[in-house]
């Protein structure tokens, strides 16, 4: 086949789908028989691909397998396996080294091997390359080796595999050229980084940049409350600068599988070289402190109405890590709920994407009717800005609202925002 994708999750499957739609002969490899069987039955296990998408892939010759023999006849093999955080704080490379070992035992001359999993600079050359060369083949001579960071943004309706520029970095110039040629067959823009380390670092720079800038506005949110500054307004005003500024917004904390995780791979690696990476450590500390700050703001709001957190009915709106997707990984909703329970609050949650939700092993009661839930709660805390939570609806039904996402400032379709695209509603409702 033209391509074997190892790891058929939220990164590997969309990559395979795009290659299939461009006419490549693609085989999917996964160690999970369940994933393999589901895909071969035309069932998708990721949100960004429908069952119809999988059926189309199968019609075009895609198949999934757990048999590594498929790699011996592959022109290109791309590794898209997870690199979760290990206990020491770096990436757990278990899945990567296992995949490399499997490839090594089935590697044939002329194959291009690409690592896409997010990891610290040096992994491709110091970890993956030696394992592949156990095959007796020499990287850069008998087979090509490159790194290319995945840039999947789950749930993003605008950017997908084909229209997100792809960075590739080869072990050698020829490896880089081979990887660029491969991706160019189904991705509009391919960018050459100098080598594998530069490509590995580009990915960590992208996500550390986000992580640190979110922490910056989170730290500002705390003292702006004291300063009597509406930070959301200042951000909107600053964002009117057409160059040199990118808006980030405060929130209840930073979730997801990328932003809170990836920067640690870098700080882990540089720490082993004896360097601190204080931006990441500070950002981690600030972002991790936001759930406690949400509780402090909740307490203040309730106290202003003569209520206390204990025995108050608190409704949590949105428990996923970001709007309009079902993923709850690292969502700050859970630490917020834990702290509310510890303070004796009676919590319920509402989230159109989450059927049931457990905190500390117990089911949190789910509110079905949004308007009713808002009207019944002593305090509503909006944690995730799902599209359902329209400003006018919140303004009309919520008795007391802690809006941690600045939803109230967003114009509704029939409202005309001011120059900064925001709307100043009755500030009777509070932001973080
Ligand atoms: N967040 C804030 N304030 C912000 C932006 C995000 O609090 O201004 C929070 C979100 O609520 C979420 C977390 O940070 O809890 C992460 O948000 P994210 O928008 O970065 O979403 P992710 O984790 O899906 O990030 C992905 C990343 N994609 C990859 O790593 C391949 C990231 O690089 C993308 O830039 C991001 O999507 C995106 O553009 O949305």
Automatic annotation (TrEMBL):
SUPFAM superfamilies: 6-phosphogluconate dehydrogenase C-terminal domain-like, NAD(P)-binding Rossmann-fold domains, UDP-glucose/GDP-mannose dehydrogenase C-terminal domain. It comes from the Bacteria. GO terms for molecular function: NAD binding; oxidoreductase activity, acting on the CH-CH group of donors, NAD or NADP as acceptor; oxidoreductase activity, acting on the CH-OH group of donors, NAD or NADP as acceptor. GO terms for biological process: polysaccharide biosynthetic process. Residues 315-410 form the UDP-glucose/GDP-mannose dehydrogenase C-terminal domain. The keyword NAD applies. Belongs to the UDP-glucose/GDP-mannose dehydrogenase family. This is Nucleotide sugar dehydrogenase.
């Amino acid at each position: 086949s033209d391509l074997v994708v190892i790891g058929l999750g939220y990164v590997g499957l969309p990559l395979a789908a795009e290659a299939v739609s461009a006419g490549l002969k693609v085989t999917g490899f996964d160690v999970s028989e369940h994933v393999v069987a589901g895909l071969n039955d035309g069932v998708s296990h990721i949100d960004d691909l429908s069952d119809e998408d999988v059926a189309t892939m199968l019609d075009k010759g895609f198949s999934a397998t757990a048999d590594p023999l498929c790699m011996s006849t592959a022109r290109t093999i791309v590794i898209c396996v997870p690199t979760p955080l290990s206990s020491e704080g770096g990436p757990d490379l278990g899945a990567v080294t296992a995949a490399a070992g499997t490839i090594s035992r089935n590697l044939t001359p002329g194959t291009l091997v690409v690592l896409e999993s997010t990891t610290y600079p040096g992994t491709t050359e110091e970890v993956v390359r030696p394992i592949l060369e156990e095959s007796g083949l020499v990287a850069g001579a008998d087979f090509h080796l490159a790194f290319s960071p995945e840039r999947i943004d789950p749930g993003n309706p605008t950017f997908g595999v084909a229209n997100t520029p792809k960075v590739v970095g080869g072990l050698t110039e020829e490896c880089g050229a081979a990887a660029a040629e491969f991706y160019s067959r189904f991705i509009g823009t391919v960018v050459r980084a100098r080598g594998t380390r530069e490509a590995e670092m580009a990915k960590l720079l992208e996500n550390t940049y986000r992580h640190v800038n979110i922490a910056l506005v989170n730290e500002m949110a705390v003292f702006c409350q004291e300063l009597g500054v509406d930070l959301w307004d200042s951000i909107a005003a600053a964002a009117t600068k057409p160059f040199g500024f990118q808006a980030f917004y405060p929130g209840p904390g930073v979730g997801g599988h990328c932003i809170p995780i990836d920067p640690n791979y870098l700080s882990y690696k540089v720490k082993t070289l004896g360097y601190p990476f204080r931006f990441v450590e500070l950002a981690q500390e600030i972002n991790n402190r936001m759930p406690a700050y949400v509780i402090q703001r909740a307490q203040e709001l309730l106290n202003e109405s003569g209520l206390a957190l204990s025995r108050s009915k608190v409704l949590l709106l949105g428990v996923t890590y970001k709007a309009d997707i079902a993923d709850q990984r690292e969502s700050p909703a859970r630490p917020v709920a834990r702290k509310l329970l510890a303070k004796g609050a009676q919590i319920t949650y509402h989230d159109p994407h989450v059927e049931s939700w457990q905190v500390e092993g117990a089911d949190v009661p789910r509110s079905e009717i949004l308007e009713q839930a808002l009207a019944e709660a002593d305090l509503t805390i909006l944690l995730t800005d799902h599209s359902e939570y329209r400003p006018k609806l919140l303004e009309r039904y919520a008795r007391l609202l802690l809006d941690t996402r600045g939803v109230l400032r967003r114009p509704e379709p029939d409202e005309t925002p001011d120059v900064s695209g925001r709307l100043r509603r009755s500030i009777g409702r509070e932001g973080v």
